Amino acid sequence: MWPTSYAKRVASDLESWVEKGWVSADNAPNILASLNKEDAPSKLPVVITVLGAVLIGFSAMAFVAANWADMSKGLRLGILGLAMWSAYGAAAFLHMRNQVAFTEAAFVVGVALFGANIMLIGQMYHLPQDFPAGLLAWSLGGLVTAWVVQSRAALAATQLLLMGWTMAVISEGDIHLMYLLPWAVAALLAFRLDWGPAKHLALIGLIVWLLGNSPNLAENLGWGPIELLAVLSSLFGLIWLAGIAGEERQQPFARALQGYAAITLLVMFWVGHVVDEGFEDGAGYLIPALSVVALLAASVFAFARASIFAPQDIIALATFPVGILLSGALTTSDGDVPLILTAPLLLALCVWLVTLGTRLHNRFLINLGFAAFGGEALYLYLETFGTLLDTAAFFAIGGILLIAGGFVWERLRRRATATQSEATS
Amino acid sequence: MSQTRILIGIAIAVLFQTALLGQMVWAQITLLNSPTEVVLKTTPVDPRDIFRGDYVILNYEISAFDRNKVPIADGLESGDDAYVLLNTQGSTAEPLEVLAAAPSDLRQGQALIRGHVNYVLRDEMTPNGSDCEDCPSIFISYPIDSYFVPEGTGTELEKYRDERALGVVVALNEEGDAAIKGLMIEGEKIYDEPLF
Predict the structure, then answer these.
(1) How many CB pairs below 8 A link A and B?
(2) What is the DSSP-derived secondary structure letter of residue B169?
(3) Structural domain of residue B22, as residue ranges?
(4) Which of A23, A75, A162, A331 could serve as a FRET partner for A389 with CA atoms 20 to 30 Å apart?
């Protein structure tokens, strides 16, 4: 087994704890041994088994797609129907033998074969290509299965199918409110089973739905991408705040909420600062402006209530929608985007993300900040501002500012620490 | 979960899924057993469905109408259901009228097919502004636009596209629902779809 980061950290700290006398030299090897003990069963066989089930599902779909004329329709339907029943029969048998992983795999095969049967019927009777209806029927079958047998794997498969369903409806230009109903049923089961991956999928499903519907909603409202991205950024800023508030109260899913909000906000800012469109004619600034005001008000409230929230966080969160609006306002009619102004904002937000992650001990935010910083720097290098010399100057100035900022920050930190020490002594 | 509960759960899942599949099959069989049968002229093209394999898209002659030639009900908009009244007395069905609602009864030699209005052209002008008396005024799609074929055989049907010799045998019920029963080339049935 590979040592976890926690085990590595304890191993490195243990030496100094023994030297300081906090831990006896006799106990140190026992502590290390307990960390490396493989008392939890490996999840690898489960993962491999479920992946095998997914492959069987694809095999069934390819069987359908081949439309083998040498076999009658009834026989083809009989084979796939029998295979589906067999999968559920196998699940019952395996469950009775306490084979949890294989039972889950059998459920996935059952749900996959149900989908293959839908495709086969569609093919046999030449039903029109209606992805939304097919995916809805498939999802409903999966959802009922997941609920009645409380299957984690069937639930995860259903959540993915539901996402496919909503995207299929949205791609036809509709705003898809109906998704929320089966999504909520699936999310409820995720929390009932208390299974992390399904909770993550529930959150991802909601984000996919929200972002997917946005272009159709914006079209109905007469908004362009800038107005839409600004309002969405304010909304995800609020979601982030909810995550921070949840972390303060030690809510179990608060960190994940912050992570998804951070990713979405960075992606939206990136799109907002490269999209070569200004404000939509006649769209109006009112709702985007109000959304920023709402975010600011909520940030100030969070600052007053949550001790882990700092003043710079208010500025940073508001910078996401404001930066996008700035980009829209300064984009010329020829489609020239003001990268020289907005790119430093994005880089600064990445630095803030690293500092926030450090403050909240949230390694994901730190890594995300570094990754986004690197990605944006690479994009700017490839994009170039005007000439390569301008780009070189931009990076040099940015680098000097960051180094100087780091130096000043460290001085301030040392001064604050010294003042604190004096006050306590 | 107890063993009894999970076994009951599995039984419910299997029954629910089988019932859904059974309903899909039953609806199609009922439609295919309808006594009304028409032949519609079509031109196929050959794409591929990622889930269901090779098929041909069937573009029907009754997909586009010129209001100067066929009466079209007022008030039909994009997204509406449209009902095309067909004369079934010839070798292939011919459109008589495009209606906004299904008529209460059909005369001898008439059939009804329900489609979906894709879009409606209000002014009879081409995009460059010249008069366009023969331009189609309404475009309708039908739920019989896909014909699935064994892998690699779609191109054989596609070659009939230019000859316009391909006909689709369609079963229709009184509500205008349609299902494909077979294919005809130059009046001869080349594919006869079995129910099972």
Answers:
(1) 128
(2) E
(3) 1-32
(4) A331
